Amino acid sequence: MVDAIRTLDDRSQLDFVLGLRKRWSGTLYPALRREFESETAARGLEVDDPKQAMPVMHDLPLYPWFSWMERGQQKMMWRAVSDAVERHWPELRAQIEQLPDSPKGGLELDPELELPDWYTAYDIHVQPGGVWSDDSSAFVYEEGAKVVMLRENDEYLFHRLLVETAVPAGPHERIVDVGCGFGKSTRPFADIFPEAEVWGLDLSAPCLKLAHVQAEQLDKRIYFRQADARSTGFDGDSVDVVSGTMVLHEMPPEAVRDVLMESARILRPGGVVRFLEFAVTGDAFRDATVYEHGDRNNEPFIPMLFDADVEGFCREAGLVNPRWLPFDERGRGVDIEDRPERDEWHFPWAVLAAEKPE
Ligand SMILES: C[S@@+](CC[C@H](N)C(=O)[O-])C[C@H]1O[C@@H](n2cnc3c(N)ncnc32)[C@H](O)[C@@H]1O
């Protein structure tokens, strides 16, 4: 694969924005928390709800800087990545234009697929044009996502940990990863369950083209399909695992409910859903900043997901034992009792797990 970030110019711009993001998460966030704790102590406030924490947080001296940096560094990051992709676009484009002759897996695009309004109405993650509007957007997203994860997930560790720690041991016949993006959440399924027919589904044709080319170059047998997670095109009772990583928070609650209905429909009896997501942690200050991350990062459905009764949606769909499992993305996956203590801002990872009765 030709790398989008390879000249000194590309790297230095990316390093600069990575430095800003680290400062925001590792310095500003803990400093804002200290101000918050002093303020609540001085006012004798017991704050155990994020919505109660927000107005207190808004009055803190560091808050404007913290919130500006959150959005400002994200916008700068996309500018830097888009510039690099544009500089190398002829070589990058050539890769997705030459689809492999005899692929191990496959790619099904649907030019007639209607993208939902809630998907196209805003630039997700502040990425201009989102991840779907033209072929370069997938390359931009791939590089940007590395910075968003502070370059701690370049080897896609947390994607692998989901599969290693949260998915029942196989053999599985068919596994479906919905909202697969450019395929980084799908590849570990193909590695760990080589016997299975592994599918990645997404609304974005640009992401799927990149996913397909990369999977073939890495010699992985994965089938990609352009489809809405609410209407996957699979027969009922034909799938062992329905998974998704960071996809539920990108849709309104009624669509999340529909995705869980569709998952329950296609699962075989005894099949499982495993969605790696974000969930409230019970730490009012931290949760308040994640609610607001949704607003500042153009992810309007994060707060709605936090407020929705997702376990209730699972039950309504006929799934049993719905639960949120805290997830340690740095090494232990779901094999933890509680979230690890950490000072810096980081995503509140959790796995939504449920089963279809036998
Ligand atoms: C944050 S990305 C995550 C991509 C990938 N799972 C990963 O972990 O890198 C969310 C993806 O979900 C896709 N998506 C959002 N809503 C969808 C839906 N209803 N059906 C299928 N894909 C969807 C988006 O196009 C995007 O590629």
Could you characterize the architecture of this molecule?
- α1 packs antiparallel against α3 and α11 packs antiparallel against α12.
- The model has no long low-confidence stretch (mean pLDDT 95).
- The radius of gyration is 20 Å and the shape is globular.
- The protein has a domain of 210 residues: Vaccinia Virus protein VP39 (Rossmann fold), CATH 3.40.50.150.
- The longest helix has 35 residues.
- It has 13 helices and eight strands.
- It has 358 residues and is α/β, with parallel strands linked by helices.
- An eight-stranded mixed sheet has the order 1-4-3-2-5-6-8-7, with helices on both faces.
- Bound molecules: S-adenosylmethionine.
- The site of S-adenosylmethionine has 21 residues, from β3.
Name its key features:
alpha/beta; Rossmann fold; 8-stranded mixed sheet; 13 helices
List the helices and strands and how they pair.
Layout: H1 8-42, H2 50-58, H3 63-87, H4 89-97, E1 106-108, H5 117-120, H6 136-148, H7 157-166, E2 174-178, H8 187-192, E3 197-202, H9 205-217, E4 222-226, E5 239-245, H10 253-266, E6 267-278, H11 284-296, H12 301-307, H13 310-316, E7 320-326, E8 349-355
Parallel strand pairs: 1-4, 2-3, 2-5, 3-4, 5-6
Antiparallel strand pairs: 6-8, 7-8
Helix pairs in contact: 1-3, 2-11, 3-6, 6-9, 10-13, 11-12
